[in-house]
Each structure stands twice: as structure tokens, then as C-alpha cells.
Amino acid sequence: MTYSPNYKVTDRNLALELVRVTEAAAISASAWTGRGMKNEADGAAVTAMRSAFDTVAIDGTVVIGEGEMDEAPMLYIGEKVGSGGPKMDIAVDPLEGTNLCAKDMPNAMTMVALAENGNFLHAPDIYMQKLVVGPGLPEDLIDLDAPIEKTLKDVAKAKGKDITNLIMCALERDRHQELIARAREAGARVVLLTDGDVAAAIAACIDDSRVDLYAGSGGAPEGVLAAAAVRCVGGQMQGRLMFEDQSQIDRAKEMAPGKDPTRKLGLHDMAAGDVLFSATGVTTGTLLRGVRFMGPTLARTHSIVMRSKSATIRFIEGRHDFSTKTWASPEGI
Hints:
Elements: H1 12-30, H2 38-53, E1 59-64, E2 80-81, E3 87-96, H3 98-102, E4 109-116, E5 127-133, H4 148-159, E6 167-171, H5 177-185, E7 189-193, H6 197-203, E8 213-219, H7 220-233, E9 236-242, H8 246-255, H9 267-270, E10 275-281, E11 292-293, E12 298-307, E13 312-321
Parallel strand pairs: 1-3, 6-7, 6-8
Antiparallel strand pairs: 1-2, 3-4, 4-10, 5-8, 5-9, 10-12, 11-12, 12-13
Helix pairs in contact: 1-2, 6-7
Pfam family, one: FBPase_glpX
Protein name: Fructose-1,6-bisphosphatase
Keywords: Carbohydrate metabolism, Hydrolase, Manganese, Metal-binding
């Protein structure tokens, strides 16, 4: 098989292949919805996603994955995926919201982002400070270092809203207590999530969402995935890696030689070039509907796929006979 020198990451067929990957992971994970076993759900998603990647015509390297090689059995950082083709960087979260899936709560989903080689931030599995707003707003509207009160005021003015009608989304964590209190004191409303901050970041960029901005800290790998999605819809995002000790700083330096690991990251620092993003719902949430079973062999899925080059957002509903799928878990489905 030969590949055109003009092949681009934004190839339409490749976009559809990525949807197949996230669908496979979502269907397999959904067999564990509400069973209280998050590790089993995550394992099913990983196995299905890994198998589905074998049919994708890329020479992919996982740069955002399930952990280091000695920490994860599959889809670890540095693992090769795909059946051969152009060199691509892969960012994956086989199951964002493992607890959400285990408890059958909203917003569990599976995600993959793809970029040309070298265009994703190689981020260790630590926390990242994040700030996201949607498209159609003045450039450089947000600043990660600005007080949240100023950010809220600026976003409200740019959107032509009273600050009392502005909705900020954040993870419900002890570390966010001050952020939440200050946002509410400034007059904004705050929507709190138990898990799943990538969905929240995307929601801040979707026109018919209630969310105006996302703020706070969450996983750095999820930050890169969020950046890929925000790139595709033309939103704005800033981030900064948060380190607990020197070993984490040293690891970040190894992954990005010559870069200051403590620097403020712009959107293109995290996801540059042509980018594809796909996600499929496992449980129904603000962005996607969850997997729905229709008898012993059929299921429906609801996915989103986006391309940065065209800024096109597509919602795809799939109907599957998973008894024919090589990635289906016989003990789970």
C-alpha cells in the first residue's frame, strides 16, 4: 500500500475511522455501566480501543495515554498503534469518567484525538490548570494569570451578558473551593461536575450549551484532549502544568526537551497543526447520549467528530450489531 505525499491528518475517511475507534470503546465500556467496577469498565474500553486501532491506516504513536509503559498494559505513552501509514501522534482517553460509568452517572465518554507527528504536548500524568471559552469572542480574551473576577467580567462583556447570567463550569474538588466562592461572589453561576472535565471544556465551546467558560484544574492528559477539541471549534484555551515535586518537573523536561515546563501554555502549545477529535458517549450527558441497547445484539451510539481545518462539527448516530465486532467483550456484552 502506498500513501500520497499530500495526505493530510484531516482526511475525511480518517475522521470516520476515529469514530469507529471511540464507538468500539464506548460499547465495550457500557457493558459495565452501573456495576460499580470502574477498573473493569476502563479495561474493557482499553481493550476494544486497542483492537479497533489495528484497522486504522496510520503509523500512530500514543503520546497521551493510560500511563507509562510499566503502568499500563495497553495504550501506554509511546505505544505504536495503527496498521501502517503516515506518522501521527495519538491522544486517547479510553474512558473519561470511570467513576461516572461505574455509577451510571452522566458524561462518561470515550475519546481520541489525532495530529501530525510532533504536534501534541507530551504531558505527564499530573494536574493542569485550565481556562476555556468558546469561539466568536475577541482574541486573547482570557488570561490564566488574571483574577477569576476579571475573567468573568471580560467574558460577560464580550458575550453581551450580565455577569449574573454567566455560567462557569468546574470540577467539584476541595482545591476549587476558593475559585468557586470567588466566582459566585462576583455574581456568576457555577455548575459543578464530579468528573469529566473534557466534556465541560467542549460544552463551553458549543452554542447551545449552558456553559460560558470552564475553569479550574484537572488531569494534564485530559487537558491535551480538551485542547484538541477546542482547536477544532475555534475556541480559546490556556493551561499550565502543576507539579508536586522535582521528579515530575524532570519528567516533563524529558518529554519536552528545551521547553520551560512551568510556562503558560497557549492552545497551539498543546495541540498544533491539523487536528481531529472524536468522542462517543457511554452514559448520557450534556454533550452526548449514552450507548443504548436494543435487544440482545443491537446497540446505538452517539458520537461527535471534529476537524480543525474545516471547523466542522458532526454528531453521528450509529447502529451496531456488536455480535459481529472483533472487539466486543463476550463476558461483558
